[in-house]
Amino acid sequence: MGSLHEQKFFEPNNLSYKYPLFYFTYLKGLNTGEGDFSYSRISLSLDHSYYLERLGKQSIFITYEKLSGNKKLPYYKLITGYGANSTSLPFFAAKYFQTMLPYQFTHTESIVLHFNHSFLKPLFYSKLSEPKISLLQSAGWGRNNQSEVKQFKTFDRGYFESGLSIENIIKINYRNFAYMGVGAGIFTSYGEHVSKNIADNLVFKVNLSVVF
């Protein structure tokens, strides 16, 4: 039996999926005496990860959401929460925009795509480090048909983000039970919703990983 040290971070494991996963959610709001919350909300998502021989692992996540019915819903009922750019959240959050503020945009209909390509082999392998590069691309489009639409910011012309992440810059052996990896990534947004100051469009994130 081999030792734990022989398990490489880049080796495929049983968390990879042979087939894509589909998720569907339907919510129905009711009209009560305390307020008109008569609306419908659907959410349809595709989540798929697969390996390309000698190239690495690719992951794609697409989600479509739509609200219909009442056009005067309160803010907290609308579709939002796409972003993970917060001083209280310095860590990389998968399936979120790293450069976008948590509630920067609000929609009644949106489609979002997140793509990640992780190179299979690390730049080098040592006892304390096993850096592996990942390239990330995200995009989103949305619209808002609320009667007070001017109150809300939308990415009707698209929101785009690219990133580069280096995982497992530091690798820690935890009591011969698991390896914990610490890395870092840099992300930038581009397109219509960017600042004229380039530095304002850059976000740095810490990423964590665990391999048993």
Cα-to-Cα separation, first versus last residue: 15 Å
Q: What is the number of helices?
A: 0
| Content of β-strand | over 45%
* Helix percentage: under 10%
Q: Which strand order do you get reading across the main beta sheet?
A: 1-2-3-4-5-6-7-8
Sheet with the most strands?
8 strands, antiparallel
Low-confidence spans: pLDDT under 50, at least 5 residues?
1-15
Give the helix/strand class.
mainly beta
Q: What kind of oligomer do you see?
A: single chain
Report on this structure.
The chain is elongated, with a radius of gyration of 20 Å. The protein is 0% helix and 50% strand. It has strands at residues 21-32, 35-52, 56-69, 109-118, 132-143, 159-174, 178-190, 202-211. It is mainly beta. β1 (21-32) and β2 form a beta hairpin. It contains no helices and 8 strands.
